[in-house]
Amino acid sequence: MAAQKCCFRLKNIYPLRIFLQTELFRRNGFLTPLNFDFLLSTTSKITHTQYLVARNSNSYRNSLRCYSASSKRPKTTAILNPLKDEDGTDMKIEITPRASNRLKEIMSQDSNPNLALRIKVVNGGCHGFQYLMSLTTLPSDINSTVAQTDDNQYHSVKNLISDDSDNNGQATLCDDDIVFAANDGTGAKVVINASSLEVLKGSKIDYTMELIGSQFKIVDNPLATSSCGCGTSFDIK
């Protein structure tokens, strides 16, 4: 008799409890849904769990897909005469934000949007090789006449390349020059010839501010084994 009364009370209590919980949820506007899993059968619980796992997995995959898509864009792109090494890997350098911002400042000060930093490696210095850096002016139509192919590679345009100087005495591009551009909106560009890129590939072009002065500098060169204190002379593997 006592057991029957207990069952009767439980039957009356559970519907009331569910109603109160639902009403509180509706009135208070809780963001977290109430858990009524105790009302589900074993099969329903398994199905519900599988749904939650699948939903979370899809959300995780989508977040990874968005992250990987945004992280694939390189910081620096070869916009003219890109080169590959013997293994078919792109030979490239990176223009750091400090270097690109400094080049942007110089372009603004000189009112020259076509200004670029030219880097050349020559024999000499206390370690066998040294960097030579100078400012140069690129052809004004380089951005509009460089053609992009389907595989996102760029190729030289003949009317941009010359072995002579232009009418103003400013150096123009040679047939073995590679032009790199920063992808940060500054318009910063670096020009390196093919033989120098062989030695500098994988390096970063940085701008440093030190007690001895401020300067553009090559850092993190994977081929350099040693360098001098001034940072302009180095040895390679």
What is this structure, in a nutshell?
It holds the Pfam family Fe-S_biosyn. The protein is an alpha+beta fold.
Overall description:
The chain folds into two domains: 58 residues; 161 residues, Sandwich (Hypothetical Protein Aq_1857, Chain: A), CATH 2.60.300. The strands form four sheets. A seven-stranded mixed sheet has the order 1-9-10-5-6-14-13. The chain has a three-stranded mixed sheet with strand order 4-11-12. With 237 residues, it is an alpha+beta fold. It is built from five helices and 14 strands.
Outline the fold blueprint.
Elements: H1 2-28, H2 42-71, E1 76-80, E2 83-84, E3 90-91, E4 94-95, H3 97-110, E5 115-123, E6 129-137, H4 142-145, E7 147-148, E8 154-155, E9 177-182, E10 189-193, H5 194-200, E11 204-210, E12 213-219, E13 224-227, E14 233-236
Parallel strand pairs: 4-11, 5-10
Antiparallel strand pairs: 1-9, 2-3, 5-6, 6-14, 7-8, 9-10, 11-12, 13-14
Organism: Uncinula necator
Domain Core: 91-141
Family: Belongs to the HesB/IscA family.
- In CATH terms, the superfamily of the largest domain is HesB-like domain
Strand content: 25-35%
Tell me the distance between the termini.
94 Å
**Helix-and-strand structural type:** alpha+beta
Figure out the total of helices. 5
Major sheet details: 7 strands, mixed
Helix proportion range: 25-40%
Radius of gyration (Å):
32 Å
CATH topology of the largest domain: Hypothetical Protein Aq_1857, Chain: A
Number of strands: 14
Number of individual domains: 2
CATH architecture field of the largest domain: Sandwich
Q: Can you write the helix and strand succession as a string?
A: HHEEEEHEEHEEEEHEEEE
CATH class of the largest domain equals Mainly Beta
Low-confidence spans: 29-34, 145-159, 161-167
- Shape descriptor reads globular
Strand order in the sheet with the most strands: 1-9-10-5-6-14-13
Estimate the mean pLDDT confidence: 71
